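Weekly structure sync, notes
Attendees: PL (lead), two postdocs, one rotation student
Agenda item 3: pending single-chain targets
PL asked that the sequence for the first pending target be pasted directly into the notes so everyone works from the same version. It is reproduced below exactly as submitted, 363 residues in total.
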Amino acid sequence: MFPHHREREQPIFSARAHVFQIDPATKRNWIPASKHAVTVSFFYDANRNVYRIISVGGTKAIINCTVTPSMTFTKTSQKFGQWADSRANTVYGLGFATEQQLHQFSEKFKEVKDAARLAREKSQDKELANTALSIAAPQVSSALSDELQSPPVMCVNGPEDKLFRSQSADITLSSEKERIKKMLSEGSICEMNLEAELFTLQDSNSKLVAALHEANANVEQWKKQLAAYQEETERLREQVAELEAHGGQGPSDLLKDELTQSLEELEALLKAKDEEIHILQSKKAEYHEMEHDRDEAIHRLREMEMRNSDLERRIQNTEQNLGNTLEERDRMDTEIQRAIEILDIKIFDLNDLRQSLVKLIDK
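Predicted structure, written out during the meeting:
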């Protein structure tokens, strides 16, 4: 049920939206399922060939819907869409920030629905093939399985106690197996939550990296402009100093005012560029913080994968012990049957001896 982490559910698309559910009483009004926008993701299970829509708010799964070919995503407005889940007996609604996000989610829904339809057709073909093989199989296997499922109770002192002990061992091993499977299920749910969180962090990380690259390119361009402005400012200052030195032969006061105004504008522009560089440096610090959060999420995911691997090993050991116990029980059944046959022969011999003694007494 829970394959290895390389075959687990993989996220294929994510979007942020406000999640709503239809009011079960009126079937008309919408009830908000989240206080703010959350991540809604499409997951694909390669082992079972199943697509699901999952959204987690905190520690609670807001949406856990298996996509079927009969589902239809309907756009009811420019930023709102909905679909019905017959298994959960509800209708989900998503409110997006832009019309483009709604369009992208709708197109992905259609793609996943078509893929689910193809997967169901392949599964039906496989079931038909398995049915044909099961019809052609001999009926002896069913009889053997009936014997294994309901073994006869032998009223023979001694081996009967061993048989009861083997049955109690089966019950203990089965309960232990169910408990381990439950633990593995809880671990897989935590792993799914961490995967959704990691996918969101990776998406934010890619956006921040693109913004950082663009900011770095802008910083380089602004540095070149700043150097050019500084050169122009120095040149203008030199011109002003030269004009002041040759006051009798220089331009009029109007030209001096224009040069002074140009110098002030360049200084204001330099100040604005310095502020923009400071803002970009602060964004770079936020990017490093996001990288730290991503590393922590990856570390938690790896710990969960190691825990799941340990639980899988425990299940394999339990299944192996269960198989050994079943083999031991079969061997004990064979010994009990053999003892019954020997007792039947002894009883038959005693009956013959009794009849012979009766004949002797009658004579």
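Discussion points:
- Strands lie at 10-22, 30-32, 38-45, 50-57, 60-66, 74-75, 80-85, 90-95.
- The first strand starts at residue 10 and ends at 22.
Action: rotation student to compare against the earlier draft before next sync.
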